[in-house]
Design brief:
By secondary structure, the chain is an all-alpha fold. It folds into two domains: 65 residues; 160 residues, no CATH class. Helix content is 85%, strand content 0%. It is built from 13 helices and no strands. The termini are far apart.
């Protein structure tokens, strides 16, 4: 009975941490720079980590308790097809530039991650765990398991990549003078997957739809090609 109560408490902990983080995020809506740093996927995990460390609870137990949320990740990803369908008539007109951007962005994401990690002396297991860093979590975990990576490390780096993209992406686009929501959305989806897509929907539904497209195409391309490349080299 105690174990079930602990699992239920850990599941509730995730919801409580998110509610507190989201409220804090909304409170600083008038200050975009501060708000970006207080993204729920930054403050939420910090709150959860603090509680786990204070209580001496192992992460594996926390993950077991939150398995319903891991299952819902896939469902949420599929649901992104709805805004994508609504913008499909715009997407068809931009097929060629979108595909060129996809191929470059997805390839560079893998090469840059592997190159930097290799130069820093990462082990083969670490390298294959980092490779799918720009793919949404359900797909990235599947790739990591197939090629012998560490799912825990993959999940952490995927979330980190998404948070950095969601925080710095809008600021970078602003500095570069990029205002086209289609470009912002598509590039954000390629580089920052689900977390970035959430941020893109805060800009507009069109930006979110193009981010969903970038997320989906990057996930499909990476899932089909990356495991073969990694198994060949490692």
């Amino acid at each position: 009975m105690k174990s079930w109560l602990l699992l239920a408490a850990l599941l509730a902990l995730t919801g409580i941490a998110f509610a507190i983080s989201f409220r804090l995020y909304q409170k600083f809506k008038a200050h975009p720079a501060i708000q970006a740093l207080l993204h729920p996927l930054v403050t939420g995990p910090l709150l959860v980590t603090g509680v786990l460390l204070l209580c001496g609870i192992d992460y594996s137990l926390y993950r077991q308790a939150n398995s319903p949320f891991f299952f819902l990740l896939g469902t949420a990803t599929v649901a992104l097809a709805i805004p994508l369908h609504q913008q499909f008539h715009h997407i068809r007109q931009l097929a060629s530039p979108l595909m060129a951007t996809l191929l470059f962005g997805a390839t560079f994401a893998v090469i840059s991650a592997l190159g930097i990690a290799w130069l820093l002396g990462a082990t083969p297991e670490t390298l294959v765990s980092l490779a799918p860093k720009s793919v949404t979590t359900p797909i990235a975990l599947g790739i990591a398991e197939k090629v012998g990576g560490a799912p825990g490390l993959t999940a952490g780096i995927v979330v980190f990549t998404g948070v950095i993209g969601a925080i710095l992406g809008p600021l970078l686009f602003s500095k570069l003078g990029v205002t086209d929501e289609r470009i912002i959305g598509f590039v954000t989806g390629i580089c920052a997957h689900g977390v970035g897509t959430t941020r893109a929907f805060e800009i507009s539904s069109r930006c979110g739809a193009f981010s969903s497209l970038g997320l989906g195409l990057t996930g499909a391309l990476t899932a089909l090609v990356l495991p073969w490349i990694l198994l060949w080299f490692f």
